[in-house]
Amino acid sequence: MGHSTSSDSLVVEYEESAEVTRRVESLDFDALKTTDYMIDSPINNKLSFLDIFNDTYYWYDYDKMNKILFIHYNRCMDMPDYSFQAFSQDVWTFVDTHTVDKLVLDLRYNTGGFPFLLDDFRVGLLKHKAYNSPEKLYVLTGNATFSAGVLSAATMKRLTNALIIGEPTSGSPNTFGRGQDIELPNSGISLRISSNYQEYYPNYDYKTLMPDVFDF
């Protein structure tokens, strides 16, 4: 664009102070895509930050030093070649074959889908009752936890002994959901609307799912 003579950086000078400059380095996107993010998972052994918000809906990684298994769950949908049921089975197989003291289910970036998919993970938890305690099982939530992500967090809060840590979610566990496509009869405009009211946390009056421990 002609703003810099260098292809990898830009020097910005402020009009109000000629002595103040800032050097802005460009990102090496090729390097970013291959940045090591070691994951002990059947999907892949390396995952870039970009993949987190791309086509990888769930994965896990293991903190060997602290014996913590982090389960990242960003979308409540099956991946084309690796169902969440198969993933959940792999998670519990890993638990059975490694020294794992704590489990962390990360829902901070879960934007929704089908909340019932989490049942496959909970089935495994029923067979591993030693982890069903607030000292062993943690669920992370944030302000990007939305829709079925909120319902998944609510399910863990209600039906397990997990400790919920993080920020309030973006939405209530009792809300309208199950999107349905309709077409307006006169204009022909297509819309997607909620088709029914879902109550995942009876008698829960908050407009958001509140964590047990706030961590911003």
Percentage of β-strand residues: 25-35%
Terminal Cα separation, in Å?
39 Å
Instruction: Give the ordered list of helices and strands.
Output: EEHHEEHEHEHEEEE
- Which fold name corresponds to the CATH topology? 2-enoyl-CoA Hydratase, Chain A, domain 1
**What value does the average pLDDT take?**
81
Number of domains: 1
User: What class do helices, strands and sheet pairing give?
Assistant: alpha/beta
Please describe the biggest sheet, giving its number of strands, its sense, and whether it closes into a barrel: 6 strands, mixed
- How many strand units? 10
Low-confidence stretches: 31-51
Q: What overall form do the CA principal axes indicate? A: globular
> What is the CATH-assigned architecture?
Alpha-Beta Complex
Level-1 CATH class name = Alpha Beta
In the sheet with the most strands, the strands line up as 3-4-5-6-7-10
Helix content: 10-25%
Rg over CA atoms: 22 Å
What's the helix count? 5
Account of the protein in words:
The chain has 216 residues and is α/β, with parallel strands linked by helices. It has one domain: 2-enoyl-CoA Hydratase, Chain A, domain 1. It is 20% helix and 29% strand. The protein is built from five helices and ten strands, in the order ββααββαβαβαββββ. It has helices at 29-33, 49-52, 84-97, 119-126, 148-159, and strands at 9-14, 17-25, 58-63, 68-73, 102-106, 137-141, 163-166, 174-183, 190-199, 213-214. The strands form three sheets. It has a six-stranded mixed sheet with strand order 3-4-5-6-7-10, with helices on one face. Strands 1-2 form a two-stranded antiparallel ribbon. α4 (119-126) links the parallel β5 and β6. α3 (84-97) runs parallel beside α4 (119-126). The model is unreliable at 31-51 (pLDDT under 50).
